[in-house]
Amino acid sequence: MSAEIFDFPKTPHERAGAVIEAAKEYAHACEVFRAAEEALSAARQAKQPETWLLCDELDAVADQLGTAQKRVAELTLALMADGSLQDLSELLAASIAGRP
């Protein structure tokens, strides 16, 4: 994967925020994909004509899902590359360990 595809935030804090937003977009894309998949399945079961339109819609949604997934992966890779993801993991572990 190439980190140059997207405009990346500069600081680790900004990149972590971008991963969170990208993950939200990915979760939404998953919901849209499931809905499109269910609509196509229902149309096929009802033997509706022209289900190919729903197939085209599902293909478009799958492309959006792939784009969102790639964005999450690219941003996560950037956080891993500079050690920020490890730092965040250690900070969270220390925070959880200190809780009663």
Polypeptide structure, described:
- The radius of gyration is 19 Å and the shape is elongated.
- The protein has helices spanning 12-45, 52-81, 84-97.
- The chain is mostly helical and 100 residues long.
- The mean pLDDT is 87.
- Helix 1 (12-45) packs antiparallel against helix 2.
- It is 78% helix and 0% strand.
Q: Using the alpha-carbon principal axes, give the shape.
A: elongated
How many strand elements? Answer: 0
Task: Please state roughly what percent of the residues sit in beta strands, choosing from under 5%, 5-15%, 15-25%, 25-35%, 35-45% or over 45%.
Answer: under 5%
Helix-strand makeup class: mainly alpha
Number of helices: 3
User: Unreliable runs, pLDDT <50, ≥5 residues?
Assistant: none
Helix fraction?
A: over 70%
- Straight-line N-to-C gap: 41 Å
SSE succession: HHH
Give the mean pLDDT.
87
Largest sheet: none
In a few lines, what is going on in this structure?
With 100 residues, the chain is mainly α. Helices cover 78% and strands 0% of the residues.
Features:
3 helices, elongated, 100 residues, 78% helix, mainly alpha, 0% strand
List the helices and strands and how they pair.
Elements: H1 12-45, H2 52-81, H3 84-97
Helix pairs in contact: 1-2
